[in-house]
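**User:** Here is a favour to ask of a fellow structure person. Please take any protein you like and set down a full record of it. No explanation is needed for now; the record alone will do.

**Assistant:**
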Amino acid sequence: MRRIVCRSFGPPGRLVLEEMPDPQPGQGEVLLRVRAAGVSFVDGLMVAGAYQLRPPLPFTPGLVVAGEVAGSGDDAAGLPAGSRVVAFSFDLGGYASHRVVPARAAVPLPEAVTFEVAATAVESYSTMLFALTRRATLSPGEWVLVLGAGGGIGLAAVDVARSLGARVIAAAASPAKRAAAIAAGAQIAVDYEAEDLKTRVRELTGAGADLVTDPVGGPFAEPALRSLRGSGRYLVLGFAGGSIPRLPLNRVLLENRTVIGVDWGAWARGNPDGARALVTDLLDRVAAGALHPVAPATYPLERAGQALTALAQRRVAGKLALLP
């Protein structure tokens, strides 16, 4: 097998490609021939040593892969060789040509969904489906403000909110990312670096947004919070902007607003059966045409460092996949 290895924390240019014997599945495990591996912003943070959880060195990045079952251990029935699957495992190891995962972490992949789309949609779309149907209940007709709307998680937020009947305001910094958000189903796109976000959202909605999804944090968090109507909900998904904001909690108190944390990964680790059901539901929605993840840009496995650099420098609208 071929795999990418991080031997020291730092810039992604330090990643190396190694060859080694194919791994063998143990009890309750399956061996996958990886056809596509998702590349995420979190992968880059882990490689840099800047994520809240530091994996022990050396490690192979990558959470989600899609491919075919190449073998199985004992007690791994139901996934015969050749089965198309998508697998999410928090043990990392996705940037490789082969990967062993627990059988319960491998979900059958409908024929209508490509390996590339599955590998790149599961993390972001599962997060947003979890956010908008489990952590908060989004109702048809509500206004949703999506920060970072041109990135992978932002585009997923736009698409999932649209599919649930919401009206979406997409906030993004570049024309290309705003155009991508409109194509994903947003009604309106705003430049939150050039416009007063609170004023613009209130102009568009009348009373304010019903819900904010924020994977960015930084200086845009407070104006987004202030753009909410009374009893609005603010979903915290991450801090891609680089800093954790200090929100004025008096604005939460006075307007009866709610701040909600969203960590699909933590929930999935503690609720594997629920996570499998959610991913199955997600893939069914994609196969049926209810959700429309965009086809990702692709890099060969050996250029994993360049892919992560492109994401970190925000030169990507949408998602990236590695092709082993």
User: Anything to note?
Assistant: The chain has ten helices and 15 strands. The longest strand covers residues 29-39. Residues 115-135 form the longest helix (21 residues). The CA atoms of residues 64 and 88 lie 5 Å apart.
